[in-house]
Amino acid sequence: MTLLDVDGIDGYYGESHIIQDVSMTVDEGEITALLGRNGAGKTSTLRCISGATPPEVRDGTIRFDGTDITNQPPEDIAVRGISLVPEERRVFTDLTVAENLHLAETVRNKSNTWNRGLEFKDEGMSTDEIYEFFPRLDERREQKAGTLSGGEQQMLAIARALHQSTDLLMLDEPYEGLAPQIIEAVENAIERISENGTTVLLVEQNAVAAMKIADRCYVLDRGEVVFEGAADELRANDEIRDRYLGV
Ligand SMILES: Nc1ncnc2c1ncn2[C@@H]1O[C@H](COP(=O)(O)OP(=O)(O)OP(=O)(O)O)[C@@H](O)[C@H]1O
After folding, report:
1. CB neighbours of 199 closer than 8 A, spacing ≥ 6?
2. What are the tens digits of pLDDT across the range 3-17?
3. CB-ligand 1 contact for 231 (6 Å cutoff)
4. Which pTM value belongs to this model?
5. Whether residue 20 has its Cβ less than 6 Å from ligand 1
6. From the CA of 223, how far away is ligand 1's center (Å)?
7. d(C-alpha 21, C-alpha 216), whole Å
8. What sign has the CA pseudo-torsion 223, 228, 232, 237?
9. How far is the C-alpha of 218 from the C-alpha of 32, rounded, in Å?
10. What is the ipTM of this complex?
11. Partner of 95 for a Cys bridge, out of 1, 99, 106, 244, CB 3.0 to 4.6 A?
């Protein structure tokens, strides 16, 4: 079943037409990867979906679970079950792991009442569930987030997102700046999240790593979709990989 349906969107930063007629679907239970070089428009596409502005969507439709969410405020989209872990990870470096998680939980509970009567339809993961899911974070509860490794910080950022009820988890370049063996740990975490029933939209420049765990892939170039297909098809397509991904 299609969970997210992006249908011919055009996204603009002021007069710059950056996202050009982009269509993609994300099926429930799958890991979908959105790939492309630096500046291809991956982050901008995620921002359109999450309701962050800019860019502004001037044409086309974004439907989540059948509902039109195009250009809705980000908090209205979040309560429907879409969670975004942005590229910059946004953990509070001076706070401990436990404090970071506590803060995420507090914000979730508050936004239930703040959101003009809108409510998350389910609870997110509890702190205990999160520690079960990420044993590394459990071991480092009292450690300041700023002293964690890059991979651990990424896991903490993902854990914070899962504190809100999440049907679709969108990850913006989770492997950026991580050493290969750490990438593997984050990969494993994403796979377990997927097996646990959460649909994943993974944005990555590291196409090789993303193709390993993705079911379907989209490749963007200059704000346009230039390939869509199964991860195996992309792996077998030397031309597209060479031309748009450099791998
Ligand atoms: N706030 C902004 N105002 C104007 N142009 C922007 C803005 N943010 C991004 N762009 C432009 O939009 C295009 C796509 O950028 P985007 O960040 O979406 O690409 P990306 O594929 O995510 O690349 P990266 O890996 O560098 O994040 C780029 O040409 C960029 O310069």
Report:
1. 3, 4, 26, 27, 28, 29, 30, 31, 32, 167, 168, 169
2. 999 999 999 999 999
3. no
4. 0.93
5. no
6. 9
7. 19
8. negative
9. 8
10. 0.94
11. 99
Task: Estimate the crossing angle of helix 150-162 against helix 180-195, to 10 degrees.
Answer: 20
DSSP 8-state assignment for residue 198: -
Closest residue (by CA) to atom 23 of ligand 1? 39
14 CA → ligand 1 middle, Å? 13
Q: Which of 18, 34, 48, 87 to mutate to test the pocket of ligand 1 (most atoms within 8 A of CB)?
A: 18
Q: Which amino acid is at 136?
A: R
The bridge status of strand 199-204 relative to strand 2-13 is: unpaired
Q: Is 2 in the pocket of ligand 1 (CB under 6 A)?
A: no
Assess whether the C-beta atom of 43 lies below 6 angstroms from ligand 1: yes
Contact, 223 vs 44, CB < 8 A? yes
| Nearest-atom index, ligand 1, CA of 37 | 21
Here the tokens at position 97 are: 């792991």
First CA to last CA distance, the chain: 31
pLDDT tens string 132-151: 889 999 999 999 999 999 89
Nearest to 34 by CA among 225, 212, 222, 235: 225
- Are 137 and 131 contacting, i.e. CB atoms less than 8 angstroms apart? yes
| Alpha carbon nearest to ligand 1 atom 25, residue | 38
Tokens 């097996």: give the residue: 195
